Amino acid sequence: MTKKTRWLIRYLLYIFLPSFLILGTFNYYYYTSEFNKSQIIIQHSLVKELKHQKLFLKNMINNIHDDLIFLSSTSSFKKFIINKLSSKHRDDLSNNFYNFMSINKKKYDQLRFLDNTGKELIRVNNLENHTELANEKKLQNKSNRYYFLKTIQLSANDLYISPIDLNIEYNQIEIPFKPVIRLAIPIFDDLGNKRGILIINYLIKKLLYYLSAMSQQAPGQYMIINSKGYFIKGINPSDEWGFILTERKDKTFQNIFPEIWNKVSTQESGELRTDKGLFTYVTLYPDQFNKQSPMVQPRDPNNKYKMVYYVPKSQIKDSLGTNLKDLLRITLSIGLLLLILSTFISNLFANHKISQLKLHEREDNYKTVFETSLDGILIVDINSNQILQTNRAMCDMIGCDFQRIKSKTFFELLPPDQLNDLLDDLTLFLQGIRHNLPNIPLLSKTGSIIYVDVTGNNIIIDNTDCNVGFYRNITRRLQYEKDLIVMKDRAEIANRTKSEFLSIMNHELRTPLNAILGFSQLLQEEINNKNHLEYIQIILDSGKSLLTLINDILDLSNLESGNVSMNLKPVNIYSIIGQILSVYKMDIMEKKLDIEYHVDKTLPEKLLLDVKRLRQVLLNVVGNAIKFTDKGYVKIHVFRETEDIQPDKYSLVFAIEDSGIGIPQEYLDDIFKPFKQLDGNTNRKYSGTGLGLTICKRLVEMMNGEITLETISGQGTTFFIKLRDIPNS
Amino acid sequence: MNKKILIVDDESYIRLLLEQTLEPYEKKGVKIISASNGKQALDIIQSEIPDLVFLDVMMPEMNGFDVCQTVKKELQVKNVYIIILSAKGQEVDKKKGKEVGADDYMTKPFDPDIITERAGEILGLK
């Protein structure tokens, strides 16, 4: 991962996460408030609904109550009561009741009149298909039944409302279930004596149906429970009537919603929000529905019902469904937008950061370069000439610390006595017109002068025109240069002295040698004594030998000092070989050596060579071959080097082969070194200076060639003189 | 008129050697004159006008090159054959000899026979 990517991700986290968190929080609260709002709306509607239903129920009860009052106020009923419940009037009333019941077949189940003792005097039943007036024999005594006992104690205008019950016929629960509610009023005669009760069984199935129908317009599940928590109307029909049906005795509200039962059972009404959902409930006290004598306190607190609306959470959410989806979609869109925006901003930040880092890095690098430079560096404000910045090298050079240097102006670094001379140049330098100044003196802390070469240019730092200059301390270099010049002069003098010495020595040796040789030669002609002649010959030979040595030393000295120049001339190989052999004619004849020479026929007649040098070399090598060969042959071959032929030039080889004494292996390394002629016997027999081959090697190398040899001790030696780059023409 | 040979050398034994070498010609009437330095040599050349001069180079007062230069280039003395006879045998020296107008250049040590031979040739006495 690149540095930039890391910063990008970091910034993205800094920007996107909080903003997304805010968005999320906002959405959460928005959603929660929408949810709550929705809950409130639902509850509001449910409360309203429940109020409606309560009113509806009350009206229903009132209506039944009205029917009872109406029935008790008919003339036939009144006659029946006045005439002490006589059988004659009872029939009229029975007819009356029968008519009433047949009209209200679906509404009522049973209408009875019971006397003070609880004995049924009239009973009309609405059966499945018809209305039936019970005959005398079927009338029963109900004195021990709860509704009788309760009602008979009531005073006028009171109304008894039984708990909702399933109708029991002959001790059997009637099937299909026939939920009923019994309403009864006490009957008094004109004197105020209690005569019995009028009781009617109201079929609440229809009522429940109405209520269900009404509830379906409201959200949620509608429930009616009695004071014990048994369902009259449950979420499932199979939950209902648990207080009557033993097999359903566990089906209670408490068991289904244990967590809220306590509240629901103790509070008159309420709105509960639980994890499961919304519960809205009211309590009904049927006793309170009597409009003729409304009671503030219910007579029977246990005769109460709870109407409960339960709206599962999922249903509330469903009602928010589209909103929620929209919200999600918007959230995601905004989130995406945020992400894009954050990425964009993060990218900007990351770029900025990276460039900042790079800048820091560059600054650090420059600082390091600045500090590690061996050259002193000064940054000078060119308006005030104040020194703004410097480095370690400068401090070391001047011998001041940072702060001391920074407190100075540029010109205070210069020796005051030279300031006038330097002022013009340095001003041009500071202005950026001149970029290089050599040999500028600076004043060190100790008062000594340091010389520097200066290079510099103008830059702008914080809107200030500055000059940045590099001050290279050349004091030591100048000293070295001075020393070098002195040493060079000395060396030249020494060299000249040597040359002069050699030249003078040469002269000084030659002149007396001239006398020795000259007079020896003159004496040779004067003397007849054989012994004396021999001595003179020794003096002559030694003198000549000394002369050769002097010549060789001079040659070598010239070669080493490079005082020798090449002098190329067209020359015929045969004539060179002829000249050389003629020099050694006497020796060849004396030793009776076979001399052969072969020159490559393809070679041009004349070659461009330095004749003098070549002759010197060949004289030496051929001379050696003759000198070290007592019998046998000396052969000279001249040919082109076949390996080294180029279009316009070639290498020429002179091979000088002899059948002489050869050179032992151990001397080969030293053969071209000065004064390395073989020691011992050979030295005496074969005289020489020991410089010949050294000079030859130098000469051949000077002619861009090389000299090598092959030898077998006792059998002979071959010297190869190879000259390179001989022009073809 | 008798022929004249001038020998110029600051070393007396070289002068002696040359005189001995050229002795055969002296017997034939050639006048052998010696000088031990350049100035003296120049005077003699001007006064005697020798036919042949053996001229050393390294001498006090005036060196051989200067003598030769004066005789040949400045005074333009005619019929004087100057052989420079020097211990300096290098190329530059020989070149210098040519420049100053010397007729020949021989190096020390010289072979007395060759000196005799050269002198005979030049004087036409062989």
Bin the strand percentage of chain B. 15-25%
Q: Average the pLDDT over all residues of chain A and give the rounded result.
A: 86
Number of strands of chain B: 5
Q: Nearest-angstrom radius of gyration of chain B?
A: 13 Å
Largest β sheet strand count, sense and barrel closure of chain B: 5 strands, parallel
Major sheet of chain B: order of its strands? 2-1-3-4-5
User: In percent, how much strand structure appears in the residues of chain A?
Assistant: 15-25%
Percent of residues in helices of chain B comes to 40-55%
Number of helices of chain A: 18
Q: Runs of chain A with pLDDT <50, length 5+?
A: 680-685
Shape of chain A: rod-shaped
Element order, helices and strands of chain B?
EHEHEHEHEH
Gyration radius of chain A (Cα, Å) is: 73 Å
The coarse overall form of chain B would be globular
Indicate the structural class of chain A: alpha+beta
- How many helices of chain B? The count is 5
| Helix content bin of chain A | 40-55%
Give your account of this protein's structure.
The complex is a heterodimer of chains A (729) and B (126). With 729 residues, chain A is α+β, with helices and mostly antiparallel strands. Chain A is 48% helix and 23% strand. Chain A has 18 helices and 26 strands. In chain A, strands 1, 2, 3, 4, 5, 8 and 9 form a seven-stranded antiparallel sheet that branches. Chain A has a five-stranded antiparallel sheet with strand order 11-10-14-13-12, with helices on both faces. A five-stranded antiparallel sheet of chain A has the order 16-15-19-18-17. The two termini of chain A are 72 Å apart. About 1% of the residues of chain A have low confidence. With 126 residues, chain B is of the alpha/beta class. Chain B is built from five helices and five strands, in the order βαβαβαβαβα. A five-stranded parallel sheet of chain B has the order 2-1-3-4-5, sandwiched between helices. In chain B, α1 crosses α5. The longest helix of chain B is centred in the N-terminal third of the chain and has 16 residues. The radius of gyration of chain B is 13 Å and the shape is globular. The interface between A and B is medium-sized, with 21 and 18 residues.
